[in-house]
Amino acid sequence: MYCMLQLFSDSPYGMHSRRTNSLQQADRFGSEAALSQESKPVQVLPQRRSPALSIGDAAEVDMQNCEPRSQGLHVSEVAFGILTSDRFVQTRLQSQRLTWLQQVRDVVFYSESDIASLPTVALRPAKREELVGSGAWKNFPALIDLHQRFPLHKWIYFSDDDTFVYLRNLLSRLGNYREDRDYYIGLYWTPRVDMEWTEVQIAYASGGAGYAISRHLLRRMSTIMSDCHEKYTRWAGDIRVGKCINDLGVQITPEVGFHHEPHDKYQWDMAGGGYPYGHLTNVASASITSPVSFHHLNVDQMHMYYRMQMADERGPHGELYRYDLGGLIFKEYICYSERLRYSFRVLFGVSVEVAPIDYRVEGPNWRKDFVDPVYTRRVDFEGDGSPIFHMAISKAPEIFNGDGCGLVDHADPFRNPPRKSAVLVIQCIPCRKVDDPKGKSDVGHICDVWKEDACTLKILLSVQCPRRQTVYAPMLDIGSSSDGLGRASHDLIHMGVPASCGKRASKQHKMYLHNDAASPAAFYISLRHGELLLLEPQIAISPARCFFTVEDSPLTSQGSFFRSVDGPRVLAIRCTCSMAVRPGHWQSDTADGVVANLTVTISTREFS
């Protein structure tokens, strides 16, 4: 007989013609994940008497269920290195892990010592190092390690633990370059004239803003980085990297969107496309291209950027969906309201400024009345199915006389306790600009402004919205074996989605795991980084004459806390089928052609 377990993926978008499911990502509010699901019967292999686990065709996977690429570059093709220290694990680094690093697959943290709860590499300074206390010496050992760990990744991105990254914006930017050429990309910076400039007069990429190195260049660097580590011992770490790259005859490629400071240190200008030249200007712009990174952030700023970027929602079966508004963040929208006799300036995701004049007549002196970003969330759908978002930004503004909030009964629980707020109503369909009612209907401007009550200013904004994405855990792998490196092989689940998503396999591509008398079928579960809470699996089998036994499980009804540093943990399941020899009497069925479909559903409750 054949007891076959199948792994398929399911797209939660719209209607389905077949019942399949995938291992969904968890979040802190709960979702469900299915390791396999009952589906159409599979082809039985002849001449095989032991039960087998069949992992379905890559060609049969619904490709909507796979993570989309940004201009051809996928997050799994970029390895991330983060410089940190023991004293920042619970502050800076924890904020990164709870925000943008949730979207990352391959990341390594570099410190002076091992950190038990993280995939950390402890680094050592060179013997002649002159700046041991500053940590400037960490860059070369970390880059050497990244090259050895991820030699096939197209890019590495290197930054500090107080840096926030808009991941899709980074992928989109790097997607414009070829990884098989020499590229060193980041924020153009130069040494201080009163310090390193007297010794090294080069341009380099700011390490705090983060820099990217192509695979081709990193391979070339690997031949000289040890020498650079021993030779350059007096400068800041990012200057050392820039000098080592310069020794190869490669210059920095300045790119827009990398920022050495938080957003409030810049003057945001809608006229330009951004400024890649570091401390040569304090002007920034997102009018053409979106920001990639900000540096020197405290933990509150890190979380603010993330919550204003992401709008999450639940599907009917507990699956998690997300709209990533990072492509719109910091874009500027200006209008004049004849009704209110005020001009309004929206810096998307951050602030709403007001001025009691018509900006088209004279240059306004903007007042930053709404500068406390509260939330972004999807609240409704248009008739055509496009989403409607609310983005709330609070503070006590001039435009309201007195308080008035105590008299307002908000139906929206997210607005309690009541605060004076500007609520951006973000729609994805065109409209006419409020101060040009006879103009063309389009997206990318403010459609209307009104006072909803004594506590709420509403601004209707039309934008080109991002499409809804299914949220997965990119750090999660499930395999049929351990890879010998303390991780599960990712031949079943790769990055939280079916491994087939990353392959162009033929319809004949299948994998068989034997479930015989000596050993049950085993699933190895592991994380590349971070932590994940998984609950006890729900298991079903068909047809009715087949049975399963869980012989080894790390999952309990109270939940099991998975950590990347613990290595793979095994879920072992044995399935058997029986046949009736006479009424009321059954025996084990070993005949060829018997097929059993097993469903394993795992609920995930939180990750970081």
Shape: flat
Fraction in beta strands = 25-35%
CATH C-level category of the largest domain: Alpha Beta
Radius of gyration: 28 Å
How many angstroms separate the termini? 43 Å
> What would CATH call the architecture of the largest domain?
Alpha-Beta Complex
Oligomer, anyone? Answer: single chain
What's the arrangement of strands in the largest beta sheet?
6-5-4-7-12-9-13
Largest sheet: 7 strands, mixed
Per DSSP, the total helix count is 7
Pick out the low-confidence regions.
1-64, 504-512
Subcellular location: Endomembrane system; Membrane
GO cellular component, one term: membrane
Keywords: Glycosyltransferase, Membrane, Signal-anchor, Transferase, Transmembrane, Transmembrane helix
Membrane topology: Single-pass membrane protein; Single-pass type II membrane protein
Give structural notes.
The chain is 11% helix and 32% strand. A hairpin with a 2-residue loop joins strand 38 and strand 39. With 608 residues, the protein is mainly beta. It has three domains: 4-67 and 473-607, no CATH class; 75-294, Spore Coat Polysaccharide Biosynthesis Protein SpsA, Chain A (Alpha-Beta Complex), CATH 3.90.550; 312-462, Distorted Sandwich (Cation-dependent Mannose-6-phosphate Receptor, Chain A). The protein has seven helices and 40 strands. Helix 1 runs parallel beside helix 7 and helix 2 (139-149) runs antiparallel to helix 5. The strands form ten sheets. A seven-stranded mixed sheet has the order 6-5-4-7-12-9-13. It holds the Pfam family Fringe.
